[in-house]
TrEMBL record:
It is a multi-pass membrane protein. It comes from Lacibacter cauensis. CDD domains: MFS_ShiA_like. This is Putative MFS family arabinose efflux permease. The lineage of its organism: Bacteria, Pseudomonadati, Bacteroidota, Chitinophagia, Chitinophagales. Residues 11-507 form the Major facilitator superfamily (MFS) profile domain. Keywords: Cell membrane, Membrane, Transmembrane, Transmembrane helix, Transport.
């Protein structure tokens, strides 16, 4: 049966809005990792607090496969529409709940435990949402344009991150007319606002989704009495289908997951925590990159209808394997605090707590928040400059905020755009690829599991594992990149050898 094309854009709009909101809910936690670390964990060890926060962030990914099993089964038994309505309600409630949890200083270790439980609920909900939305759109779309139409759903993950970053920045600077006071209020209690407003977005999406009809392919299956009685058994106990599940995981979604989370989340984490980039700049760089890269999800999704899904995804993985270390090395070199602190620098502004220094070689302005107990200065007065040239003898700053000048900022935004371009190559065609691997009656379950293991376990752990590696091997700031590089390389080889480039889009309908 060929699905009807009537009203496809309304279907895509309704499905995409709900999925975008769920991604917003899910990723706002990661976007605020540094702030949340100070709220829900002891402040005595900032590195441990950040790792604990990233671990809590990763926990939401780890349970996504379980959500895929639970909600995938429901989706194949009772339908796509009501299943991803349920996931939307759960996600919205959990996100709203995180915004209400008291901090560590008020309720102690109960705070991170409650947040972890809510984060697990978020992961379960997202495990059911994506597969439902992708399947729903794919089953409405013409088979020869399935890559194009499902690629619009693929934009929602990145756009959800974009919205979360935008809401955070607007909130951070809108709490007081005095910028310093506004930021202080945000770090104290304003960070809760992005979590709390999500309930309004969820309400709008639920209203829209209630008006949607069931997928035509599933409705036909149900009317003929051919729906699956036990989707889990049919998906994983039958050798042929299990083979497709494993191939989807190790030949596509595993590599796609690490490319996604390296290009967007680890890039932001690296810029903020390793390069010590200014809070606003680290996020606006990502926002600009997302704005210019997002259309390429649709470009590569549409291209996959014409030339096949496989090689587009393989090339995206190869690009990450070859270029991650060179790109991240540029980030490091252009903001290398340790090397910069060892040079003779010029003071351009100084007060009791802050010294702003310039270095013409790196074309970067760096603000060093001094701790006089840890930093010693040797003053060399010069009448010509009417200022002080200083050399830092003991280079152990408490915190360093790096502010890029315009040209370096643009260069960083272009490099992050390139990282996200790799994401669009692997992610744009993936929904159509997964849908076409599995029969309609077990599609929701079968496609959701490999997707969420690949993205939730392999991809979602990327920021945590990469950050952990940099704390173990402290002499190599780029050591964390070996994790996504190795995973993507293995997946690329398996996919190149065993995945067919052209899969008949009608064979499983």
């Amino acid at each position: 049966m060929k699905p009807q094309n009537k009203g496809i854009w309304k279907i895509i709009g309704a499905s995409s809005l709900g999925t975008l909101i769920e991604w917003y809910d899910f990723y706002i936690f990661g976007s605020l990792a540094t702030v949340i670390a100070n709220q829900f964990f002891p402040k005595t060890n900032p590195t441990a607090a950040l790792l604990s926060t990233l671990a809590t962030f990763a926990a939401g990914f780890i349970v996504r496969p379980f959500g895929a099993l639970v909600f995938g089964r429901l989706g194949d038994m009772i339908g796509r529409k009501y299943t991803f309505l349920l996931t939307l309600v759960l996600m919205g409630g959990a996100t709203f709940g995180i915004g209400l949890v008291p901090g560590y200083e008020k309720i102690g270790f109960a705070a991170p435990i409650i947040v972890l439980l809510l984060r697990l609920l978020q992961g379960l909900a997202l495990g059911g949402e994506y597969g439902g939305a992708a399947t729903y759109v794919a089953e409405h779309a013409p088979a020869d344009k399935r890559g194009y139409f499902t690629s619009w759903i693929q934009t929602t993950a990145t756009l959800g991150l974009f919205v979360s970053l935008g809401v955070i920045l607007l909130t951070r600077h809108g709490l007081d007319s005095d910028p310093a006071k506004s930021i202080a209020k945000f770090n104290d209690w304003g960070w809760r606002i992005p979590f709390l407003v999500s309930i309004l977005l969820v309400g709008v999406s639920i209203y829209i989704r209630l008006k949607m009809s069931e997928s035509p392919l599933y409705a036909k299956l149900k009317s003929e009495g051919k729906t699956s009685v036990n989707p889990l058994k049919e998906s994983f106990a039958h050798k042929g289908n299990l083979k497709m599940v494993l191939l989807a995981l190790f030949g596509a979604t595993m590599g796609q997951g690490v490319i996604w989370y390296t290009g967007q989340f680890y890039a932001q984490s690296f810029l903020e925590n390793v390069c010590k980039l200014d809070f606003d700049q680290s996020r606006t760089i990502l926002i600009w990159a997302i704005v210019f890269a997002t259309p390429f999800f649709v470009v590569f999704g549409s291209l996959s209808d014409k030339i096949g899904r496989k090689w587009i995804m393989i090339i995206g993985m190869l690009a990450g394997v070859l270029l991650y270390r060179p790109i991240f090395n540029i980030f490091k070199q252009d903001t290398n605090v340790k090397e910069w602190l060892q040079q003779d620098l010029t003071v351009v502004k100084q007060d009791s707590s802050t010294t702003v220094l310039t270095d013409k070689t790196l074309a970067v302005t760096k603000t060093v928040f001094q701790n006089q107990a840890n930093m010693q200065f040797t003053e060399i007065k010069t009448d010509t400059l009417h200022t002080n040239n200083i050399r830092i003898a003991d280079t152990k700053p408490v915190y360093t905020a790096v502010t890029l000048n315009t040209s370096t900022y643009i260069k960083f935004a272009a490099l992050v755009f390139l990282l996200i371009l790799f994401v669009t190559m692997v992610y744009g065609p993936i929904a159509a690829f997964l849908v076409e691997l599995f029969p309609t009656k077990i599609r929701y379950t079968s496609m959701s599991l490999p997707y969420h293991i690949g993205n939730g376990v392999f991809g979602g752990l990327t920021p945590f594992i990469a950050t952990l590696l940099t704390t173990i091997y402290t002499n190599d700031a780029l050591v964390g990149l070996w994790y996504p590089i190795i995973v993507a390389a293995v997946c690329m080889i398996i996919g190149a050898l065993y995945i067919n480039n052209k899969i008949d889009p009608n064979v499983n309908d």
